[in-house]
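Morning, I've got a small favour to ask if you have a moment. I owe you a coffee for this, so here goes:
>
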Amino acid sequence: MRVLPARHRQLFKEPFGTLFLSFEEVLIQLPGKHVFSVGDVVTAHLLTAGRPPDVAVVDGHTMRQPYPGVKIPEYHQILVKNPPGGLTEELIEASAIAAGQPGTVIQVEGEEDLAVVPLAMHAPLGTIILYGQPSEGVVMLAITQDMKKRAEELFMCFEEVSTSSAREVFNI
């Protein structure tokens, strides 16, 4: 399990990609692209627009409040646990599996906010990852070699802790 130390949290407050204020601006850029989504609201907007994501990561919450839930029953479902402020090995592994298996939903028990990092590391070049920037808009991350390298740099900001320590810290 990896934990994001407080000294690196400011790195994750800035958009990792391009921030769009309207979802419609993003939609016109998606035809012909593989699209991964992180977050219930972004995923719900894609489904409503008739453009389901190839891979979705959801947790049943938005801004830590319950969200009615995003269901894509025809997709392969992977259930994982992940605490706020961390990345469990099962979420990292699920991201790697999903990146190579379109038609997958990763359902997170806990929080999925940081899932964009391992998903960006494993996504094929040319993939678009969308995620919400709370109270601001939608971030579009186009996966290039430079963005994969940046994702790996962000991943290295996390500190590895033992599973027993993680259980004590996060009650998982």
Q: What stands out?
A: Helices lie at 23-27, 40-48, 89-99, 116-122, 145-155, 163-170. The first strand starts at residue 2 and ends at 3.
